[in-house]
Design a protein that fits this description.
Elements: H1 5-27, H2 34-52, H3 60-67, H4 73-102, H5 106-115, H6 119-128, H7 134-143, H8 148-176
Helix pairs in contact: 2-3, 2-4, 3-4, 3-8, 4-7, 4-8, 6-7, 6-8
Amino acid sequence: MLDNKLPNMYKLIILGIIGFLVAGLAILPRFLSVTDIAGYYGVFMLSFLGSVSMVLPVPGLISMCGLSALLNPILLGIIAGIAETIGELSGFILGVFGSYIIEKKRLYLKLHSLMKNRGYLIIFLFSLIPNPLFDVVGISAGILKFSIFRFLFVVLTGKLIKCVLISITCDFGINMF
């Protein structure tokens, strides 16, 4: 079961993320036009919702790809990568708080054996590739009580690489024609 410190840690992480976002929204108008801010904010929200939503398809990558020719593709990829990482916390937290339902069942034992030794590598590879199966990996990491900080670091690394590469590739492809 969960100890009492775990929910407080999640509250602190969520408050930290909200504080970071509010600070970013306060600072951005000094450096960007209103139109640029709307584009970056839109990509952030669509990428976040796409990662939070486990069922509904949200066009986060498509919007990032379309705007990459108009906005800075590297900054766009970074913003989308951060948003997707924050959104993936939903699956992880679902796994942490729902683990008591699945403990000692056959699925739990299989997940444990698959991710025990190479779990962070699996998380990295799945976050690097655009696919809808990452939610299962995030839930599995939560069930297996992976460190939330390591989980976030590994997911952020993979998502940043993925989103920046896709954004640069889309920018190149759109500007080529």
